[in-house]
Design brief:
With 345 residues, the protein is an all-alpha fold. The protein is built from 16 helices and two strands.
Length: 345
């Protein structure tokens, strides 16, 4: 009887936590829903539904694209904890492999969110877990995605060329000649790095490699992993960024094409594209228009995030020295200088 009363108390506390979080508009603590539902789930046998986990994981990238930076951390952490608990139970080999894939995807997406908040040290731990889980699952494309995606994020965060190149090299080594999501991201990272240092030849060579991989994946499903996809819109986004960095007049057309492909409601990626257009305007010495365009993009979209800070830095660096003290330039720096904070748990 005491045990039953204790279980009821735990469930009541969990229900209070749920109501408190919903009332305050904060993240629901991990494990709360599971605790509330645990009695019925025990009777039902706690059946493992990997298809449901697949659907949950596929939905995360869409939600992350439509919500402010960091707002998905609580949900990702909660699901990761739940998958960890499931892994501690005895499962058939196929079920364990599936759960490892889920944990790799969740850890990778959690790392992306943490990196975007500037929490790079914590993100490194999440990336490491993502890589080891993907390797243990035997999902080769997922393992390549982890390295390719981490390379992209490391580049946006301004990490050292050596760190980025090592990640790119590992993704390329693991991929070999087989087209994959992670390989496309590795080539995209190489192209952007080269464009940032003004190496037109290397940037276009890597961009062509990225296009070739993207073309080979089209219609095959090879561009999809359990937690992410790579397709035409990603390719145009990359090309637009490379051309904007190089000051190429074709950047405008690439930006138009990329913007047309992103779904309505997309925040981060679209804000970044508008900042790239501001960068092209500044490089064309249309300073006033460029700065005004950048400010409008940040005010209408999500101003926080590593990529936004990176692009604003590149816009300011492209300004003539005298223009860097303009009020608009200072306001740009202020808008992206404070990291967005959300409750992790």
């Amino acid at each position: 009887m005491k045990k039953l009363q204790g279980d009821d108390d735990v469930k009541r506390r969990a229900a209070i936590q749920l109501l408190t979080a919903i009332g305050a508009g904060t993240a629901i603590p991990p494990g709360v829903i599971e605790t509330i539902l645990s009695g019925v789930e025990d009777v039902l046998g706690n059946r493992l539904d990997l298809d449901e986990w697949e659907r949950i994981l596929h939905e995360y990238p869409r939600q992350m694209n439509q919500r402010p930076v960091g707002s998905m951390i609580g949900d990702l952490a909660g699901d990761f904890i739940t998958v960890g608990r499931l892994l501690k139970r005895s499962h058939a080999v196929a079920e364990r492999t599936g759960l490892l894939r889920m944990s790799a995807g969740l850890a990778g997406l959690l790392a992306v969110e943490l990196d975007d908040l500037g929490e790079w040290r914590v993100a490194e731990t999440a990336w490491s877990t993502a890589g080891r889980s993907a390797d243990a699952s035997g999902d080769r494309n997922l393992a390549i995605w982890v390295r390719g995606r981490q390379a992209q994020v490391a580049n946006y965060a301004g990490k050292s060329d050596r760190v980025i190149s090592d990640l790119v090299g590992e993704a390329q080594y693991r991929a070999g000649k087989a087209p994959s999501n992670g390989l496309a991201r590795a080539h995209a990272t190489t192209a952007i790095m080269a464009a940032a240092r003004g190496d037109d030849t290397a940037a276009h060579a890597a961009l062509n490699d990225c296009k070739a991989v993207t073309g080979k994946m089209a219609g095959t499903g090879a561009g999809n992993v359990v937690c992410s996809g790579w397709g035409e819109k990603n390719m145009w986004w990359t090309e637009a960024y490379v051309l904007a960095l190089l000051g190429d007049q074709r950047a405008g057309a690439a930006l138009d094409q990329a913007l047309a492909l992103y779904p309505s409601g997309t925040l981060g990626a679209v804000t970044n594209l508008h900042l790239m257009r501001a960068l092209t305007l500044v490089k064309d010495r249309d300073i006033d228009h460029g700065l005004a365009y950048a400010l409008a993009a940040l005010e209408d979209g999500d101003a926080k995030g590593t990529m936004r800070r990176r692009l604003v830095g590149q816009i300011v660096d492209a300004l003539p020295e005298k223009a860097r003290t303009l009020p608009e330039a200072r306001e740009l720096r202020v808008l992206t200088s404070h990291r967005a904070r959300t409750a992790v748990l």
